[in-house]
User: What shape does this take?
Amino acid sequence: MKVLKTYIIPRLIQYVVVVFIGITITFIVPRLTPIDPVQATINRLAAYGGTYMEPQAFESLQQTLKELYGLEGTLLEQYLAFWKHLFTFDLGPSLSMFPTPVMEIVLNSLPWTFFLLINTTLLSWIIGNILGGIAGYFKDKKWSDVLAVVAMSIYPIPYYVMALILVILFVYVFPIFPMMGGYSIGIRPSFSWSFILDVLHHSILPAISLIIIGMGWWFLSMRSMTSNVVAEDFVTYAEFAGLPKGKLLFSYVMRNGILPQITALGLQLGGIFNGAVITEVAFSYPGVGLLLKNAVTNGDFNMLMGITVLSIIAISTASLIIDLLYPLFDPRIRYR
Amino acid sequence: MPLLEVKELSAYYITHVYGVERDVKAVDNITFSLEENEIMGLAGESGCGKSTLLKVLLSMIKPPLRVLAGEVNYSYDNKHFNLLTLDKKQLREVQWEDISYIPQGSMSTLNPVRKIRKTFEDVIKAHKTAEEKEEYEKLMEEHIKYLGLPLEVLDSYPHQLSGGMRQRTTIALATILKPKIIFADEPTTALDVIVQRGVIQMLKKLHKEQENTMLIVTHDMAVHANVADRIAVMYAGKLVEIAKKETLFTNPKHPYSQFLIRSLPKIGDKRQRISAPGNPPSLANPPSGCRFHPRCPYAKDICREHIPKFINYDKSHQVACFLYSDEIEEGEKIVSESIRS
Assistant: This one.
């Protein structure tokens, strides 16, 4: 298999190298800070308790904390232990919700984030690209300019402003949507219609905010991409050949303009793992983004490391998949 | 009746930038005709308006290009029409089916993400209705075979073909509906001589068997010598001379054509070649009078003030030069209002 040798294997190697380097950096960076987390915790405990500690008890406390933080032994031993834990999917216990394992907490939040972000990312990608493609093809028309101006004025609105406006409009002024959470307080998660409807009801506002902002970008980039493709010789020639408008637009213009958008979609889907931090905070949505924000404010060292490592793996995997699928979209890559 | 008759055709690129109007007079008052089953070569240096003339003759007119005056009359099979007055639907019926086009730079004329077979299907479907898929396939494959191309071409993507193969595929695509007249824009440019030969032979074969009319644009005089019956020479947006191929090569009349022919290498002749002095003029601001006068060794006073008329030097030889006639082109043809918007 030539394709396997020249296309797939080099990319797999690249993938492994990227993940390895990324995780190694995640391991090194916290250890370069001048703060000793063990000492910091002991100081904090001492400040709370303020009591005198026996040297022996102090010693064992220090030992326990080091174990907890993975700071036992030399740097090399720590590093090897770190990898050993990773291969058993053990990211250590969360420090703020001790002793629940980080992995368990993240796995609980993931479905929420995935549900919200995969749907909104795909929807905004599809709508934005179709509108952008059509607007780029008819770039001489008035309405195309109007759409572009609308997108250009929405796109740069800071996301938190957009989220706040939506919350004020649809929660306070017109109380259509609930304010907080992934589902109503008091309802138990179950596979019932009422629960599913409740979840949908809670997710509409965050979803709308994400789609509006995301669409603006996809629209603008697709519009400029297609308006370049329209000027290409093969489009002019196909126009002369009398091809129907629809075929021209989809098979000739948009088919060529969409290629870079596919790469961008892949990267964005990989980035889902981080959650949409601001969205989830603004709407108190129980996803990974909210988890990340809480970990930062609580100084939950293990949780931060865990989310970082998992997102490195997720983004690299997403770009690997896109890379492997790309030949399906662009035949010029296929045989190289 | 000639198959194609071009009458006093003027097409400018008109742009307005910050209130400044800029006209590029790419095609200026051109008159000529093409007989059925004839191959005419259109020669001229880069930027003299050859490709623009083709675009107008094919009615591929997009702003900023505008046709300001003139007629492009076609007549074949009891059909007589001025291409410039047809609406979109009527245009679709004649373009490609009767009037086809081989574009310049075939490197980018095929959709890079579509198989050649699909592109062929698209074109056939756009013109032939209610036919079975197998019939298209048959038509395609026969045509490809007939032109001596390997059938594998159909199942390739454009990037998998060499430049020459791509050009020949484009020619096959342009001629699949057996057009009456074919306009080829620099069909051999950017190809090496071996491939050029293949392309020229292909065009000749098509001409012989489909009995169509061709207008081949190129600045390569060797190509003209090979294929053309008559040669038209264009300079700075105007036709300066039309003659039979043999006449033009042996006895060119217009000073520009003379320079053109004299600059060609000849076997055994080792003298240095003389080229026209100076540079081609800008079409946005062409010289007054005869557009060649700043570079012409025979320029007289009249050349600086007036435009020479395109006259019949003899029955099959036309030239626009004051050396042969004092006739002046009617006025400075002021074409202010456009006939098409």
Summary: Chain B has ten helices and twelve strands. The first helix of chain B runs from residue 50 to 57. The longest strand of chain B covers residues 20-34. Confidence is low (pLDDT under 50) at residues 332-341 of chain B.
